């Protein structure tokens, strides 16, 4: 019992409600939401430390013992993601302060962001499968509102598709929960795991496992189900895309990891093999998209898809190294995708276009922005001192240990093409003759600060691997051995 | 009884899929309505349809029907109600702004403004 772990859910909830009353007073909205998200960062940091010293923290809501009530569970994996989410939320708010128009801010932009953070954090912390569905809906409804806010023609058109896809996947989620309830008679994840271990993972349960893969794959954009993402993510303003790119798909990835390490881990030759090949195809199609486009938003959007594939390959390989690598890579990817979308937003704010053929020579007038983009590009590709390296190294190592040589080579090759795709932006956009009419001379100072925070974190993450590794291996231990999680929740 | 309900739910799902694959946006929204009806009926069916009293302790019955699926359905209904009303307003707004409800004319992944 620990009331601490409900705070990352309660803080954005209360603040979202309070902010609704101040929709005309932008100044108060900015101050309150900045304070709330800073508080979330601090609380999430305390939770990570508590979980590190005292083991998994659980909170039985209303004193109902699991499996009868809803239980919130903060293991190291969830609390690391909650901390990363809080940091992304804070920097996104800083970015929004200087990039969002007053009309958007008056129409409940900041409450929308708080409710989005509430949904994401809740999805990470819950220990109940139907409660996970509810937090998904909280997150999705805020994202519907944020994607269409401003209602340009492009946004209206793309949000129709986004909402339709998510309505269908939500219905599928309800259906999957119904099937699972019919077979097991419980909704608590730890209890589900125990019961499935007792009755053995029959063919029916494997079918449900694949149904869950389809549902979370629709949220997390894996290979045959990523078709909605490129269009939807380029419609809203940069700060919203950064929130979506850093958080929403990662919730799908988190859910796949949780479900396939905690509940459906008994038939790895079938389910994990499918997951491995789907993640390989996800990587391949992601890099094809990333190198095909000359639109900087599209390039970064397709890089989200590639990263999802890499993380899920780590989960599918299911060796200690691979799981640890995928935890490293997931946290790194949330930070660096936030930074990249902010950078793209800053570039678009300067040049007024996202078409790479229309501007060049940015480095002459905006050197700081240029070198920050360079660092972000190297970190994304996984160049050793930066944050993307250790994760990919461990994933590839785990892939070799699991005997998945082909897919491990796909991961390695993908790094090269990812590097090519972002270096293309750097070479064509920042080098060359300065294109005077395309480049505004105003320097977007407020936009650079949140990018600098995220990049500093990414560099510190890369250099501080020694310091981080006890946390990460604790997260990986829980994922590898479901009994730790089950004992913490059910207290047998 | 469960078999009959399963067949009915299957018919609802196939009608929903058929409608969602059509061109008109309103037909698609009707499809999502049918899809959520199907999903809700499926929870009820999968919870078991054995005979028993309504889940009220005042009934003083020997057996009650399972109360959990009913709570799940109630939650799922209000959620899908909220999403559907948002979706309908979005469809109305985009009809005003874009002047069409034909999904073929709402293409344009590759245009950027």
TrEMBL record, chain B:
Bilayer topology: Multi-pass membrane protein
Compartment annotation: Cell membrane
This protein's UniProt keywords: Cell membrane, Membrane, Transmembrane, Transmembrane helix
InterPro entries for the chain: CPA3_antiporter_subunitC, NUOK/Mnh_C1-like
Residues that span the membrane, as ranges: 6-21, 28-49, 69-92
Domain of life the protein comes from: Bacteria
Pfam family, one: Oxidored_q2
Family classification: Belongs to the CPA3 antiporters (TC 2.A.63) subunit C family.
PANTHER family reported for this sequence: ANTIPORTER SUBUNIT MNHC2-RELATED
The name this protein goes by in its record: Na(+)/H(+) antiporter subunit C
Lineage, top ranks: Bacteria, Bacillati, Bacillota, Bacilli, Bacillales
